[in-house]
Amino acid sequence: TGTVQAPSNSAVIVNGQSAVLNQSGHFFVNNVQLAPGSNTVTFVLNTLDDVPITKTVTLNSTAIAPFMVALDKQEGLAPFTPKLTITNRGNVAFQRIDLDLNDDGTSEQTLTSLTDGSTVQALTYSNPGTYTLRVTVYDTSNAIIYVARRKIRVYLPAELGLKVANVYKSMVNRLIANNPTSALRCFTGDAQANYAEVFGVLGTTLPTVASQLGTLVDGVVSEALTELTIVRDTPTGTEAFMIHLIRGGDGIWRIESMYQWATGHRRDVAGDAADGRLQRCTTTRRDREPRAGDR
Questions:
Q1: What is the 3-state secondary structure (H, E, C) of the chain?
Q2: Is there a contact between 228 and 164 (Cβ–Cβ < 8 Å)?
Q3: Residue 115: count of CB within 10 angstroms of its CB
Q4: What percentage of residues in the chain have a pLDDT greater than 90?
């Protein structure tokens, strides 16, 4: 766990694993494996505009725990349903394993055996908040022989929607300020070259065009992909445009595409806003998971 001071669209990576970072700058990460002896743990803070900040600490571990407790996901939209894996890697005799989903002293589930030394349990967190999952193992004498705690964060779509909407608004504000270089940092690596060409053609009209891009009215969010809807008044009436954003491998949200669906194709928003001076069309959209190249 720790705290950082950074913009909302930031990410903390710990030994290559994404940490949970809340709106107050507090972060945590589960399942960072330590080997017996000295271990180097590397923290990386990624932001949209600055180079990554890296810090390392050294932690000592005295032994390998007899049980391994791991979550497949440590944060997500409500209702959140992570999977918990418990492995008896030390083949230790035990009486029961209690699962306390919010560390309040009351067990919600008890396991008395593990098939082939392991189990996968589906958990459910219906409401937003930060929870501490406690896993307690008892021996045949009812004495505690192992305790593990894992933190979980559940959030509402509105929180994520606000974060990604601010990416779009930041891009527009940078264009209005006639700073296309800064605005391009709001796009994925794949999209930057295309929109650099768009912004270059618009030239001195860029701030005016940017101010006419439209108003955010709606959106559909998921943990890795988001679609925002903007509307704009045109000579033919009010039209809707879609903004697709993805969360890259560095944990930062960026714009992948901006387009309006038209007959048989999609029309680029920025080009269309140039009042016919630039039209950029493409026939397909890639529905895919984020990848490292999206940074």
A1: CEECCCCCCCEEEECCEECEECCCCEEECCCCCCCCEEEEEEEEEECCCCCCEEEEEEEEECCCCCCEEEECCCEEECCECCEEEEECCCCCCCCEEEEECCCCCCCCEEECCCHHHEEEEECCECCCEEEEEEEEEECCCCCEEEEEEEEEEEECHHHHHHHHHHHHHHHHHHHHCCCHHHHHCCECHHHHHHHHHHHHHHHHHHHHHHHCCCEEEEEEECCCEEEEEEEEEECCEEEEEEEEEEECCCCCEEEEEEEEEECCEEEEHHHHHCCCCCCCEECCCCCCCCCHHHC
A2: yes
A3: 7
A4: 82
Q: What is the pLDDT of residue 268?
A: 58
Please state, in angstroms and rounded to a whole number, the distance separating the CA atoms of residues 228 and 190: 19
Question: How many other C-beta atoms lie within 10 A of the C-beta of residue 28?
Answer: 20
Query: Tokens 């992948």 label which residue?
Result: 256
**Residues 4-41 pLDDT 10s:** 999 999 999 999 999 999 999 999 999 999 999 999 99
pLDDT digits (tens, 9 = 90+) for 138-194: 999 999 999 999 999 999 999 999 999 999 999 999 999 999 999 999 999 989 999
| Mean pLDDT (the chain, rounded) | 89
- Statement: the pTM of the whole predicted model exceeds 0.90: no
